[in-house]
Amino acid sequence: MSSAQISLRYREGQFTPSETAAITGTPLHLQRDWRSQGLLRAREGGRASFTPRELAEMRLMMRLRSLGVSLPDAKRAAVEAAPGVVFAALADHQMRTLAVDGTAEEAAAYIGTLEDTGDHTYMLILAELDGMDQVYRHAVIEDGECRLLHALSEDAADETVEAAGLINLWAVAAAIAKLSPRPLFTLVAPKR
Questions:
Q1: Each residue of 45-61: pLDDT tens digit?
Q2: 3-state DSSP: the chain helix, strand, coil percent, rounded to 5?
Q3: Rounded to an integer, what distance in angstroms lies between the CA atom of residue 174 and that of residue 170?
Q4: Confidence class for position 162, pLDDT limits 50, 70, 90
Q5: Rounded to whole angstroms, how far apart are CA atoms 138 and 54?
Q6: φ, ψ dihedrals at 148, nearest 5°
Q7: Is residue 91 within a helix (H) or strand (E), and if so which, with residue range?
Q8: Separation CA 26–CA 65 (nearest Å)
Q9: Span 61-80, pLDDT tens digits
Q10: Average pLDDT over residues 82-89
Q11: Taking Cα atoms as reference points, which of 50, 127, 121, 146 lies closest to residue 85?
């Protein structure tokens, strides 16, 4: 099965404001404030809920703000990094973040079929990424700015860089996976 042939049917997890507060550390009053400022999606149908990507954005915004990054810059960096965080949660914590409708045997067979591509295509699709080049591993905070890095190298953090903070984005993904009360995504296996 090539990556061009993968067609996924899935349900994206929806998380209540209270669940989101527990997962992201974003208090309810701050969620309301950010929504009124247009930093979070407006409520739909009178009920607020958040997607896995929004969970990643909020958790990153909270971390970046704690390291002195301005709210607009934190939002920009969080939007760019969030899909990679979702990918990391799926890649490293699949048992907690991904479910498949059906029996355990059907689920295992379907995941096996998807993994036969060997290139994580289905996880990239779920995370809304075009490729691995959009998956970042670290965020370095320097002079109130956030730089997203694919890897920490001597060039990225040489003696001229005086970072105010470093965020391991894969650790952010691990925290989301650990704190989520249910899978981030549920795959619907095709009928045979």
A1: 778 899 999 999 999 99
A2: 50, 15, 40
A3: 6
A4: low
A5: 19
A6: -95, 135
A7: helix 71-92
A8: 11
A9: 999 999 989 999 999 999 99
A10: 97
A11: 127
